[in-house]
Amino acid sequence: MIIGFDVDGVIATAPLGLHNLLRKFQGLWNVILKSPMGALVYRHFRFPDKDVKNLICSLHSKGHTIIIITYALGDGQKKAVEWLKKNGVPFDKATAPKRGEKPLEFKCRAVAEENCDFFVEDQDILAQGISEKLQRVQVIHYRSVEDLSALKELS
Ligand SMILES: [Mg+2]
Asked: What is the pTM of this model?
């Protein structure tokens, strides 16, 4: 299977449970990440969700393809890739948004181009939008590890 993962709010967790708050506000991640101070603080303190990381390791070792689809702008993409490597999260490919692409537009294009069977996304509006546009794909709206039961069966 080809499984796409969002990074922030799925693989990466913010300290103090901030990801739960940020998840509810569409675009707030991007506002934070666009501000130099916000990006610095977040990138310094984010840490991998242990359950999600273990699941990805297990899926990858079983031969499933892991695609990273994160709306990271500027050097955020490179930083996200470095962070994944540093934290031992295996993946086969990481995609980047094109200039001017909006988050939903980018994620729909990337999920379709990469032929993902599954896509894991934490923001409700994005999860719903991708699911409506790409009905062939099983979009998992991630809030807690229980939401990943379909992937656990593959691991
Ligand atoms: Mg996210």
From this structure: 0.90
